[in-house]
What does this fold into?
Amino acid sequence: MKKKYYIGLSLIVAIVILIIDQLTKKIITATMNIGDSYEVIPHFLNITSHRNNGAAWGILSGKMGFFYIITLIILAVLIIFYIKETKYNAFMQVAISLLFAGALGNFIDRLFNGEVVDFIDTNIFGYDFPIFNIADSSLTIGVIFVIIALVKDATKKE
It folds into this structure.
């Protein structure tokens, strides 16, 4: 019989991402000043110490109360969605775990520091992409996985 929920897998994914996210942010804040940058791969990847008190690309900068409320709502919705809609679908459960870990990682920063620590600085095909972190990456990958799971599910029903 197929498992209904893959709680162990979901927890491992969320906890590992959260630990890596928080650990890398602690290393950046302990070893670099804001604005310091180290080139890792020339013309592609730098580690740059940056702080963001807004959302992606600094949107709604300084609106911490708004972010607290929205993040708590998002976390609650993710838990409800996980319980009600992801039965028998390990891939979707992992996707939700990635979204949960990413949202929680940045929420922890906002709650304890009033800002999010960003440090991954990329230049992709000449575009200087906004600086981000592991939690942001987890959110992005989680969204991509949700889209893949939904498309796969939709094509199954046809």
